Amino acid sequence: MKRVLMNKNISIALGIIVLVASSFLVGCERNTEAEGPSLNDLYGDFTVLQDFEANQETVDFSSQESMHFKARFSTITSWRITISSDNSDAIKIIEGRSNILDEETASWDGTTTLFPTFGIGSCTAELWTEADSSIQTTKVTVSGLRTPSGVVVADFENGINPDWTVFAQSGANMTFTIGNTEVVPQGDNYFDMGGAVDWDYLIGLVDFPGTSVGPNGFELPSNPDNIYFNVALYRPEGITNGIVLFRFSEDENGDGTFTEANEDQYAVELTDLEEGWQIVSVKYSDLVALENGQPTTPKGNNQHNPDKLNMVSCLFLANPATGYSQTLMDYMIFTTDGPLKL
Amino acid sequence: MSLKNYLIIGALSVISFTANAQNKKVWASGAARSVFQQNNLKTDGDTVTPKQLNSGHALVDIAINARPNDQTFLHAMVRVRNDFGGFWGSGVTFDMRQLYLKGLVKNAVRYQLGDINYRLTPYTFFNNQEELSQHQSEALNIYRDIMRYDMFYTDDNTWRQQGASVDFTLEFSKFIEEIEVNSFMFRNRPTDFGQQSERIFFGGNATLVQSKKVNVGLNYVDMMDIKGTSRSNTAFHNPVITGTTDFRFDIKKFELGFNSESGISERYTLNDPSVSVLRDYFYDLNLELSSKKNLPALKLNYINVGPQFRSVGAQSRRIDFGTQNLMYTRYGNEQVPRPVTQLDMLQDASLYQSQLSTTLQTFAPQYDNVQPYGKATPNRQGISVTAGYMSKKKVFDIEATYRMLSEIVGQGSDELRSFSVLNANGTLYIDTLIPSYKNELELSFGLTNQQTERSTTIPQGNIDLKSLLLDVGLKIGVSKDFAILGNYRIINAQGNELMNVRETSGEIIDFQPFTTDMKQNQLLIALRYKFDAKNHINVVWQQISFEDSADEALSKFDLNQFGIVYSMHF
Fold first, then answer.
1. Nearest CB neighbour to A24, from listed B263, B414, B460
2. What percent of chain A lies above the pLDDT cut of 90?
């Protein structure tokens, strides 16, 4: 009797086993294609199937146009396109690893890798491929310049705006003036901050009030996650002691001024700039309140309110014991949806 | 108040708690250890790396245990560590090592809150053993046990997590004996209130026990981001659902067992179209034949794990070979990263992970190229046979496993890799052969031979990788408390592989050629004195030589280490 019962149990169990096991796998399909790139694409004989060329001879970046380069190879290889202006030192570098250059992998929207920015005129594009170390070239002509969209705080093209407040200590070799002798990332001018002050960290500062941008101020959207502060900065060779501090003062109560005691002031402090020109971009919501360089609690509503921004200030500082310091500044702009691309 | 005073008060408090343990049901427990090491690295022509490196520390883990009532238990453990050389408290650190509360509700529902060791099945939630751990002689365990204790690794393959678990059993009077239900929810990652959402790992299983001979189970786990806990609207998900069966019956003197696990997984990210959905299935079938007296045993296994099967809880690795050694991190005049050796794997806790990983972590094919992510390694199918035998008078035991696996789909080609592994280990208990010898006398060995092969029409796609591990251990009991331990282990690996380069979504985007001609030899000799079962001191000397002639950047080196290890539990 017991044996029969056991057999019955076994039958029940086997039924459950089959049900449970099969229920998970019923309807399951498996992709049986090989994973990853084809070995033939990676390691086959390399040949150029389509020569390097631009998809259009002329491009107008001012009307938001973009262009791309085309080429096809028999295998996947690393490649690099170097676009050089025939009239200036502007260079754009596009790198990738694929066997096809197309709109997805090799597009150019008019931006620059090495400043100055591209001007109107012809450019030479050079394609280097790792597989055979060959170089192919093609030409493209820029007929319209790229104009980044956003709220321009200062581009220094018309000198110093009388609404700005410029203060420079009475140190040695002080500049704090408009300059144009170095490479200029945008336009023809930049702002030169330099000097030696042996009694104070502060070398000088510039206040950019919202009223200098427009009668209604900066008019930024309210979402701090979608606003980016951008500025082009230049560290001269051999100068490593500069500190650039940007402050963002908010007018939370709408009285037209920033009150330090009970309104938010956020900041970003830049100390490790690369040599040469670079674009620094900071999301507005990533700005922090600082006191003597250390994070602190904002004194206002403790919320990032770009729509209530009253003034942007740029302070140039250096350790007084370290002597002369200098940084160049250009094209300060707020952008939405992403950092500035010049 | 000085640090010294705090320590005195703390010590007095512990003594006080212990003294009142019987009445107030509060008592202290813990562990202590002290390690001192002297290392010497020899590399031909290296004039940059310091040769000698000494290090040491002493630490105490003090736990307060409390049982305020019959149904509740509290445990809090604090670690006080002093690195040698940090005088007057400057090198002292205090850390909360573990904290949990567990109990029983109405004698029916068990719960635990805080730090929890947990596991389910090898395809859902399972902490696979690290490489080289199949056959560890006692000599090698001296340092490995320290690392495992620090990382909360256990032999039962649990992961240490933080959260809550609830377990209960429903009993029945007819047809089925009981249904065991286990559930858990762990916090895997906190939100940063920016773009990183709170991530939790939750799941459980229900096992229907029809009798001692039959049970079936259902397992479910999911690693997921909780939307709304950050500004990001994307959310990672990796649900896995499996079914298990276990069926046993008797055939004369033997027991025949059939058990299986099968299931499906998905891996996707909500609101992120750039991340592909991975969906696949697996099945794992086992047939076991064993003697009721546990002498000979034979196991037959077949697995089929799909290439897109993903299970965070089962595929997370202990060692992430993307990390670096802590000791002699770089070496040679070029100061290249020093490769991870078997010695580092025994004692460098910084190589080991305590968090579950949502991506397939880096592994080292020279140590294990066949199933680096345990049984849940994706894209594997095949059989394995295991045979074990223990002699009647316990003179020796031996176990051997042969695995013959292949890929299910090719990588970069339709041709499949084939894998074979022979794994054998055994111990000869010499003392049982010599009745006059009253102390332990054991000789153990281990062997692992792995091979990976693939032939394709593209020469660069051909793969031929072989590795061999040979291990001999010796234990000579000189007296009841004093023993000499020794171990000699060789690891050789030769050949080439194409390592996968994956996106964070898990898709393969490239292959990275890997070649090796590695030779490692490790000799370890130790003297052990046991004060009692939980209290011993070891004096350890070991030497390892490493060379990989296939990698010109890696210089041959020898590493000598002398160490004194004292450990106790109380």
1. B263
2. 72
Contacts of B172 in chain A (CB under 8 A): none
Confidence band of B18 (pLDDT split at 50, 70, 90): very low
ipTM (interface predicted TM): 0.80
Would the pLDDT of B501 be above 80? yes
Probe site for chain A from B281, B497, B498 (most A CB atoms < 10 A): B281
Q: What is the DSSP letter of A330?
A: E
Q: pLDDT (tens digit, 9 = 90+) per residue, B23-41? A: 558 999 999 999 999 999 9
In which domain, by residue range, is B330 found? 108-557
Lowest-pLDDT range of A14-18, A228-232, B86-90, B127-131: A14-18
Cα–Cα dist B269/B320, whole Å: 24
Domain assignment present for residue B280? The answer is yes
A1-15, A325-339, B192-206, B236-250, range with the lowest pLDDT: A1-15
Q: Is residue B16 predicted with pLDDT exceeding 90?
A: no
Query: Inter-chain contact B231–A225, Cβ cutoff 8 Å?
Result: yes
Q: Are residues A104 and A167 in the same domain?
A: no
Whole-Å CA distances, B75 to A27, B8, B173 = 48, 22, 37
Total structural domains within chain A: 2
Q: How many domains does chain B have?
A: 1
pLDDT bin (cut points 50, 70, 90) of residue B88 is low
Q: Check pLDDT > 70 for residue B63.
A: yes
3-state DSSP: chain B helix, strand, coil percent, rounded to 5? 10, 55, 35
Interface membership of B408 toward A (CB under 8 Å): yes
Among chain B residues, CA nearest to A11:
B214
Same domain, A115 and A204: no
DSSP annotation string for B494-516:
EEEEEEEEE-TTS-EEEEEEEEE
A25 touches chain B (CB under 8 A): yes
Q: What is the pLDDT of residues A191-218, one digit of tens each?
A: 999 999 999 999 999 999 999 999 999 9
SS3 B328: coil
Helices (H) and strands (E) in chain A, counts: 2, 20
Which residues numbered 234-263 in B keep a CB inside 8 Å of some CB on A?
241-245, 247, 249, 260, 262-263
pLDDT at position B562 is: 96
Q: How many CA atoms lie within 13 A of A15 on its CB side?
A: 7
Of the candidates B412, B458, B500, the beta carbon closest to that of A34 is on B412
Distance from CA of A1 to the nearest CA of B (A): 15
Measured between beta carbons, the chain B residues lying within 8 angstroms of A12 are 175, 210, 214
Which residue from B335, B322, B405 is spatially nearest to B364, judged by alpha carbons? B322
User: Considering the domain boundaries, does residue B338 fall inside one?
Assistant: yes
Q: How far apart are CA A143 and CA A145, in angstroms?
A: 7
Task: Provide the mean pLDDT of chain A.
Answer: 89
Do A189 and A242 fall within a single domain? yes
- Residue B261: inside a domain: yes
Q: How close, in Å, is residue A54 to chain B by CA atoms?
A: 27
Instruction: Identify the pLDDT of residue B6.
Output: 43
More confident residue, B381 or B90: B381
Chain A segment 159-178 residues within 8 A of B by beta carbon are none
Full domain range(s) for residue A82: 39-144
**Do residue B500 and residue A36 have CB atoms under 8 angstroms apart?**
yes
Average pLDDT on B546-553 reads: 93
The string of DSSP codes covering A90-142 is: -EEEEEEEEEEESTTTSEE-S--SBSSPP-SEEEEEEEEETTT--EEEEEEEE
CATH of the domain at A294: 2.60.120.430
B12 CB-near residues (< 8 Å, 6+ apart) = none
Q: Which of B216, B249, B283 is the closest to A25 by Cβ?
A: B283
Radius of gyration in angstroms for the set of CA atoms belonging to chain A, rounded to a whole number: 29
Contact B211 A35 (CB under 8 A): no
